[in-house]
Amino acid sequence: MCGPPRQLRTIGCRPFHRADRPLDMEKCAADSTRQGLTVRTDTTKILVIMARKRAFTLIFDPLVKRHLRAIPAKHHSLIRRTIREQLLFEPETATRNRKPLKPPAPLGAAWELRLGPDNRFRVLYAVNAERHEVAVLAVGVKKGNRLIIGGEELTL
Predict the structure, then answer these.
(1) 69 three-state secondary structure
(2) How many domains does the chain have?
(3) Range of the domain at 95
(4) What number of CA atoms fall less than 13 Å from residue 132's CA on the CB side?
Protein backbone atom coordinates (compact mmCIF):
# COMPACT_ATOMS: atom_id res chain seq x y z
CA MET A 1 0.00 0.00 0.00
CA CYS A 2 1.10 3.55 -0.65
CA GLY A 3 0.95 5.69 2.48
CA PRO A 4 -0.83 5.11 5.77
CA PRO A 5 -4.28 3.52 5.80
CA ARG A 6 -7.21 5.92 6.15
CA GLN A 7 -8.64 6.37 9.60
CA LEU A 8 -12.26 5.43 10.12
CA ARG A 9 -14.53 6.63 12.86
CA THR A 10 -17.99 5.44 13.72
CA ILE A 11 -20.99 7.74 13.59
CA GLY A 12 -24.69 7.37 13.10
CA CYS A 13 -26.94 8.19 16.00
CA ARG A 14 -29.55 8.99 13.32
CA PRO A 15 -29.91 7.45 9.88
CA PHE A 16 -29.89 10.92 8.29
CA HIS A 17 -27.95 13.66 10.05
CA ARG A 18 -28.92 17.28 9.39
CA ALA A 19 -25.82 19.27 8.48
CA ASP A 20 -27.08 22.44 10.18
CA ARG A 21 -26.96 20.83 13.65
CA PRO A 22 -23.73 19.92 15.47
CA LEU A 23 -23.07 16.22 15.79
CA ASP A 24 -22.40 14.83 19.28
CA MET A 25 -19.55 12.45 18.41
CA GLU A 26 -19.37 10.67 21.78
CA LYS A 27 -23.07 9.83 21.73
CA CYS A 28 -22.94 8.82 18.09
CA ALA A 29 -19.86 6.66 18.58
CA ALA A 30 -21.61 4.78 21.38
CA ASP A 31 -24.78 4.32 19.30
CA SER A 32 -23.05 3.42 16.08
CA THR A 33 -20.71 0.81 17.51
CA ARG A 34 -23.83 -1.24 18.14
CA GLN A 35 -25.06 -0.55 14.60
CA GLY A 36 -21.65 -0.93 12.94
CA LEU A 37 -21.79 2.30 10.94
CA THR A 38 -18.53 3.89 9.82
CA VAL A 39 -17.50 6.91 7.79
CA ARG A 40 -14.15 8.19 6.50
CA THR A 41 -12.61 11.11 8.37
CA ASP A 42 -11.16 12.63 5.21
CA THR A 43 -14.57 13.30 3.68
CA THR A 44 -15.04 16.62 1.93
CA LYS A 45 -18.40 18.35 1.51
CA ILE A 46 -18.97 19.92 -1.87
CA LEU A 47 -21.80 22.40 -2.27
CA VAL A 48 -23.14 22.99 -5.73
CA ILE A 49 -24.95 26.26 -6.18
CA MET A 50 -27.03 26.52 -9.32
CA ALA A 51 -28.11 29.89 -10.60
CA ARG A 52 -31.86 30.33 -10.70
CA LYS A 53 -33.37 31.30 -13.98
CA ARG A 54 -35.03 34.68 -14.01
CA ALA A 55 -38.79 34.29 -14.20
CA PHE A 56 -40.73 35.86 -17.04
CA THR A 57 -43.38 38.45 -16.22
CA LEU A 58 -46.89 37.28 -17.08
CA ILE A 59 -49.09 39.96 -18.65
CA PHE A 60 -52.75 39.15 -19.22
CA ASP A 61 -54.71 40.89 -21.96
CA PRO A 62 -57.83 42.60 -20.53
CA LEU A 63 -60.03 40.38 -22.72
CA VAL A 64 -58.79 37.24 -20.94
CA LYS A 65 -61.24 37.96 -18.08
CA ARG A 66 -64.09 37.81 -20.57
CA HIS A 67 -62.69 34.63 -22.07
CA LEU A 68 -62.57 32.97 -18.64
CA ARG A 69 -66.24 33.83 -17.98
CA ALA A 70 -67.15 31.53 -20.87
CA ILE A 71 -65.33 28.62 -19.15
CA PRO A 72 -66.86 26.85 -16.10
CA ALA A 73 -65.47 28.31 -12.85
CA LYS A 74 -64.29 24.91 -11.59
CA HIS A 75 -61.51 25.01 -14.22
CA HIS A 76 -60.23 28.54 -13.49
CA SER A 77 -57.73 27.51 -10.80
CA LEU A 78 -56.36 24.74 -13.04
CA ILE A 79 -55.90 27.22 -15.89
CA ARG A 80 -54.17 29.82 -13.68
CA ARG A 81 -51.90 27.24 -12.05
CA THR A 82 -50.89 25.66 -15.37
CA ILE A 83 -50.16 29.05 -16.93
CA ARG A 84 -47.83 29.88 -14.03
CA GLU A 85 -46.13 26.46 -14.07
CA GLN A 86 -45.62 26.31 -17.82
CA LEU A 87 -44.92 29.90 -18.82
CA LEU A 88 -42.88 31.48 -16.01
CA PHE A 89 -39.47 29.99 -16.83
CA GLU A 90 -39.30 28.47 -20.33
CA PRO A 91 -42.22 29.76 -22.40
CA GLU A 92 -40.34 29.38 -25.70
CA THR A 93 -39.45 25.73 -25.25
CA ALA A 94 -41.64 23.41 -27.31
CA THR A 95 -43.06 20.48 -25.34
CA ARG A 96 -45.85 17.98 -25.82
CA ASN A 97 -48.44 20.56 -24.68
CA ARG A 98 -46.66 23.76 -25.77
CA LYS A 99 -46.39 24.42 -29.51
CA PRO A 100 -45.35 27.34 -31.72
CA LEU A 101 -48.19 28.49 -34.00
CA LYS A 102 -47.77 28.86 -37.74
CA PRO A 103 -48.37 32.40 -39.00
CA PRO A 104 -50.84 33.94 -39.45
CA ALA A 105 -52.02 33.03 -35.97
CA PRO A 106 -55.16 34.42 -34.35
CA LEU A 107 -54.79 37.49 -32.10
CA GLY A 108 -51.08 37.81 -32.93
CA ALA A 109 -50.19 34.82 -30.77
CA ALA A 110 -46.98 32.95 -31.48
CA TRP A 111 -47.48 30.02 -29.08
CA GLU A 112 -50.25 27.70 -27.91
CA LEU A 113 -50.45 25.93 -24.54
CA ARG A 114 -52.76 22.92 -24.28
CA LEU A 115 -54.09 21.98 -20.85
CA GLY A 116 -56.93 20.56 -18.81
CA PRO A 117 -58.94 17.36 -19.06
CA ASP A 118 -58.36 15.81 -22.50
CA ASN A 119 -56.26 18.90 -23.38
CA ARG A 120 -59.46 20.75 -24.20
CA PHE A 121 -58.31 24.22 -23.08
CA ARG A 122 -55.99 26.42 -25.10
CA VAL A 123 -53.94 29.43 -24.01
CA LEU A 124 -52.63 31.61 -26.83
CA TYR A 125 -49.62 33.73 -25.91
CA ALA A 126 -46.70 35.72 -27.27
CA VAL A 127 -43.20 36.03 -25.80
CA ASN A 128 -41.01 39.14 -25.71
CA ALA A 129 -37.59 37.69 -24.84
CA GLU A 130 -35.84 41.08 -24.68
CA ARG A 131 -38.21 42.41 -22.02
CA HIS A 132 -38.60 38.97 -20.40
CA GLU A 133 -42.40 39.07 -20.72
CA VAL A 134 -45.13 36.63 -21.68
CA ALA A 135 -48.37 38.17 -22.94
CA VAL A 136 -51.36 35.85 -22.46
CA LEU A 137 -53.69 36.91 -25.28
CA ALA A 138 -56.56 34.44 -25.11
CA VAL A 139 -57.95 31.44 -23.23
CA GLY A 140 -60.40 29.18 -25.00
CA VAL A 141 -61.96 25.75 -25.33
CA LYS A 142 -61.13 23.38 -28.18
CA LYS A 143 -64.09 21.30 -29.42
CA GLY A 144 -63.14 19.08 -32.33
CA ASN A 145 -61.72 21.34 -35.04
CA ARG A 146 -63.17 24.48 -33.50
CA LEU A 147 -61.57 26.87 -31.01
CA ILE A 148 -64.10 28.82 -28.97
CA ILE A 149 -62.71 31.92 -27.24
CA GLY A 150 -65.09 34.02 -25.17
CA GLY A 151 -68.11 32.35 -26.74
CA GLU A 152 -66.93 33.12 -30.30
CA GLU A 153 -65.48 30.60 -32.72
CA LEU A 154 -62.02 31.28 -34.17
CA THR A 155 -60.43 29.54 -37.11
CA LEU A 156 -56.90 28.23 -36.72
Answers:
(1) helix
(2) 2
(3) 57-154
(4) 7
